[in-house]
Specification:
single chain; eight-stranded mixed β-sheet; five-stranded parallel β-sheet
Length: 701
């Protein structure tokens, strides 16, 4: 006999799955607040195979709870041997009146959940905002109806820090999309009265929000939760400042089910102690509602009732919740796990971030979108969000016919003939940058090689002056720090630089490409200053950024794997494969966005016209459907099929030049002894899109 709760539909599904596993005869009592889910599943099972044993031994029914005319007859050892009861104290207490020899109660008794936040959350504003966003998922999703939703959040913080966190948490809960969480339809009147009383009279609690039953955050001044914390619902949370984690532990008991933890390192500290207080489940912050029904929730297995136990769910999936995916809130290592979850979640993930996006992460879907420029337009910008009035980068952020015009004007420095002509100069540049490092026997391959080489090469190819070459990197970093924040002040210094370069090319023309570009025409008219600017900014940034980041990752991987250096030295023919495997495995441009020009369908998902679509190139390049053992660096993958250079009309103009630069570096490194890493290297995002390495400190020989 299953008396199930109705606070989330998955409980009905879990009940029927568990019954199928034990092959029991089962009566399932439908809850009054969800009389549909279990019945729909059972009727579907009967429709598929009415004679199946799981169908023939299953009964789904509804009667009003407490109806003795039904229950006194049914709840008897002659008819059932176990009552599995979910629900609140009243429900469990009601069932116990029917217990007698031969009738066992398996009580999935009511639980409450809490959160522990370490002091690292308060290191800076950005970290605190991220923690508040993750915590909001645990508080607000499922309308705070589930036992694993957070109610009380213990923060190792001062009261002032706790109040700041409470304000951020309140705002983040209000920003949860309506399809994931809404304000309570029927707010608890007793809780409403308690909040009003605190707001009016209490010196020890600070109430944020809650005036319109939209949810609230109560911040305690001392290390005590509010007296009514067990009744918190309707997206109401209580933030409690504590001196240390041990102070939070003392608040847990046998009614504590899930404890959400940030940072994850705290779980090592809690894992062996929390079970002694009764805690059943530890999860990473933001993952509480990402419930896994195969886990031994509520100590269901009999053997687990004889010991103290705990489940540790250390998760690093989609920003800790797939439905809240935000490409601006990841670090590169977490992004690998996030991308894996996006791929496994389905062909399309709908994210509410930045006005709403459709996220594609599978190879076939990303490749198809890149090729279909008529449906997936880049004319609204591949960076998102982007500062208003920021320039478009030609030709990538234009559709035909403008794209065709710009691409024709920009192609000459990157033709096969131009690249062959430039290759000896590239070799000289690499040797000149490597020689000081090899003479010293040590150096930083990022600062001394990966950064200056692409800047020098693009300057040679385009005809930038030495002054421009030295300023481009600084201006690029300034662009990435300001553009996502809506600050377009980065553009004026670039414009000034380009005006000087254009003036020099006109007044002192040479044989370089820039001297011819400033005299080019479009349909019989001179190229305008603005048109020159959108081409030059693309040359300046795209011409060095991606090669710089790919080279940094290649050098880092080689430093960590001396056996790979030996193999490439012995087999130079494998160097092109090493270049392309680096481009695939550590995609230098992690993603780009498009906007649909018409309604389209991806899998079973309808994507309306005018929708922002995020194409996760980095995820596609690790799709196991396309690349066996996708997380391994392998030199036997054959022809390169990665999407790093794009597809279709926007295929990267500088792809061949970049490959030559990377190959020449490998060839020149092979002339020297092996290099090995002597200091940690950190990977980080610029503009949430370009993956950089801070240093590759090595010793050589």
């Amino acid at each position: 006999m299953h008396v199930i709760a109705g606070n989330t539909p998955i409980i009905a599904a879990i009940t029927l799955v568990r019954n199928a596993i034990v092959r029991g005869d089962a009566i399932v009592k439908l809850p009054s607040n969800d009389p549909v889910t279990a019945l729909a599943i059972a009727r579907t099972m009967a429709g598929v195979d009415p004679a199946h044993p799981l169908v023939r031994h299953l009964c789904v029914a509804y009667w009003k709870g407490g109806d003795e005319s039904v229950e006194r007859v049914l709840y008897h050892p002659a008819h059932v041997e176990k009552i599995v009861a979910w629900g609140g104290f009243d429900s469990i207490r009601h069932v116990t009146r029917y217990l007698q020899p031969g009738l066992e109660l398996v009580a999935l008794d009511p639980k409450l959940s809490a959160t522990v936040i370490g002091p690292e959350a308060f290191a800076d504003d950005r970290t605190l905002a991220e923690v508040a966003r993750l915590a909001a998922a645990d508080v607000g999703l499922l309308n705070q109806e589930a036992c694993f939703n957070a109610r009380v959040l213990y923060a190792v913080a001062t009261p002032e820090q706790a109040r700041r966190f409470g304000e951020l948490l309140y705002r983040e809960v209000q920003d949860i999309p309506a399809d994931l969480s809404t304000p309570a339809k029927r707010f608890d009147p007793e809780l409403r009265a308690d909040l009003r009383a605190l707001r009016a009279t209490s010196e020890w609690f600070h109430v944020i929000g809650g005036r319109d039953d939209e949810g609230a955050v109560v911040v305690s001044e001392l290390d005590d939760p509010v007296e009514f914390h067990t009744s918190l619902s309707g997206r109401v949370a209580n933030v409690v400042p504590v001196d240390d984690v041990a102070s939070a532990l003392r608040r847990f008991n046998s009614y504590t089910q899930t404890v959400e933890v940030w940072p994850d390192r705290l779980k090592t500290e809690l894992r062996d102690v929390a079970p002694l207080y009764g805690v059943q489940r530890l999860v990473s912050l933001g993952c509480a509602t990402d419930f896994r029904p195969e886990l031994p929730q509520d100590a269901l297995e009999p053997t687990r009732r004889l010991v103290k136990w705990i489940v540790d769910e250390t998760r690093t999936d989609v920003v800790r919740h797939a439905d809240l995916f935000d490409h601006h809130r990841l670090d590169p290592d977490l992004a690998i796990e996030v991308h894996r979850e996006v791929r496994e979640r389905g062909r399309v993930v709908r994210s509410p971030a930045h006005g709403g996006m459709y996220v594609l992460g599978r190879y076939a879907d990303v490749a198809a979108a890149l090729k279909d420029h008529e449906t997936f337009s880049s004319a609204s910008g591949v960076f998102h969000p982007k500062a208003p009035d920021a320039p478009r980068f030609a030709p990538l952020e234009y559709d035909p016919p403008e794209q065709v015009t710009f691409r024709a004007l920009m192609r000459p420095p990157f033709t096969p003939a131009s690249v062959r002509e430039l290759t000896p100069a590239i070799t000289d540049l690499v040797r000149g940058l490597l020689d000081p490092i090899t003479r010293r026997g040590r150096g930083d391959f990022v600062g001394e090689l990966a950064v200056p080489l692409p800047l020098a090469v693009v300057s040679l190819a385009v005809g930038f002056s030495p002054d421009a070459q030295h300023r481009i990197r600084e201006l690029t970093s300034d662009t990435w720090s300001k553009m996502p924040a809506g600050d377009n002040s980065f553009w004026k210094p670039f414009e000034a630089l380009f005006r000087d370069e254009i003036r020099r090319a006109r007044e002192e023309p040479g044989e370089d490409y820039l001297s011819s570009l400033v005299r080019a025409e479009i349909d019989g008219r001179p190229v305008t200053e603005d048109e020159l600017h959108v081409m030059l900014v693309a040359f300046a940034i795209a011409g060095h950024e991606t090669t710089m980041n790919t080279l940094s990752h290649l050098l880092l991987h080689l430093a960590r794997h001396p056996e790979l250096q030996d193999r490439l030295r012995a087999r130079p023919d494998l160097m092109p494969a090493a270049v392309d495997e680096t481009l695939r495995l550590w995609t230098p441009v992690d993603h780009g966005t498009r906007v649909t020009t018409r309604e389209t369908t991806v899998g079973d998902t309808r994507v309306p016209a005018g929708s922002r679509v995020l194409l996760l190139t980095g995820a596609a390049n690790r799709d196991p459907r396309q690349f066996p053992f996708p997380d391994e660096f392998r030199l036997d993958r054959g022809q390169p099929r990665h999407l790093t250079f794009g597809q279709g009309i926007h295929f990267c103009l500088g792809a061949q030049l970049a490959r030559v630069e990377l190959r020449v570096v490998l060839e020149e490194l092979a002339r020297h002894g092996n290099h090995r890493l002597v200091a940690p290297a950190t990977r980080y995002y610029e503009n949430a899109r370009h993956i950089c390495v801070d240093q590759v400190a090595v010793e050589i020989g």
